[in-house]
Amino acid sequence: MKPLIGMPTDADWTHRGFKDYIDDRVAQGIVAAGGIPVMIPPHDVNMIDDYVARCDGFAFLGGPDIDPTLFGEEPVAKLGNTSLRKDQFELGLCRAAFKAGKAMFGICRGIQIIGIALGGQMYQDFPSQHEGAFVKHQQDAPAMYPTHHVTTVPGTLTAKLLGEKPYVNSFHHQTLKTDVGPLLKVTAQAADGAVEAIESIDNQLVLAVQWHPEFLFETMPEERALWGNFVERVEQGG
């Protein structure tokens, strides 16, 4: 039986109430790797345990900025749109899934949610807050085109799947700090030090990346490997 992959949705407010959605490319990536994508509206923290019990693994996706008050900071001037309810739901879901031994995959905002949920710190605006930042992390090129390289840490799962210097796309201005807490390790960085991938230390529950492999998996074999590995980790119970 194919595994069920829970995916917290974005939730935009409209004149008709909240509209929940995901990028179809993420669902395609999961289906291509042998999983069944299931959308999770991020509205009710009281349902987190039910979602964790019913889903076999979780994908945390791209989306708005993360509310800095949830990691002990006040907002800086260059902070973008945030969604407190979405943030609170996803942080709670991530912690519960990790505790339950459910495998997770993070994309862009997703790597940040996983990092913060498990004890890490982050930049609200990497270009203005990190001395030496110079890589263009918000590309103007179409999403299916990679625009900069990252360097992986030898011996990590990230390096095994992607090689030494993966070529990636980039659509972010927030990023994790290298202090990712006691449960995680940094496994790839950009040339200016931006954290580009993380893994869990003592198990294979977590692999997350800062770029968007959902736009690259059809043309780049190494990006397909990320999706296949995710479903494999889910099937193995992390």
Automatic annotation (TrEMBL):
What the entry lists under Pfam families is as follows:
Peptidase_C26
Does the record's keyword annotation contain Hydrolase? yes
- Where are the membrane-spanning stretches? none
According to its UniProt entry, the protein's GO biological process terms are: polyamine catabolic process
Q: Which Gene3D superfamilies match?
A: 3.40.50.880
Stored PROSITE patterns: GATASE_TYPE_1
Q: Which GO cellular component terms are attached?
A: cytosol
| Coiled-coil segments on the chain, per record | none
Q: Does the keyword Ribosomal protein apply?
A: no
Please provide the record's keywords in A-Z order: Hydrolase
State one molecular function term (GO): gamma-glutamyl-gamma-aminobutyrate hydrolase activity
Name this polypeptide is given:
Gamma-glutamyl-gamma-aminobutyrate hydrolase
Organism, scientific name:
Secundilactobacillus similis DSM 23365 = JCM 2765
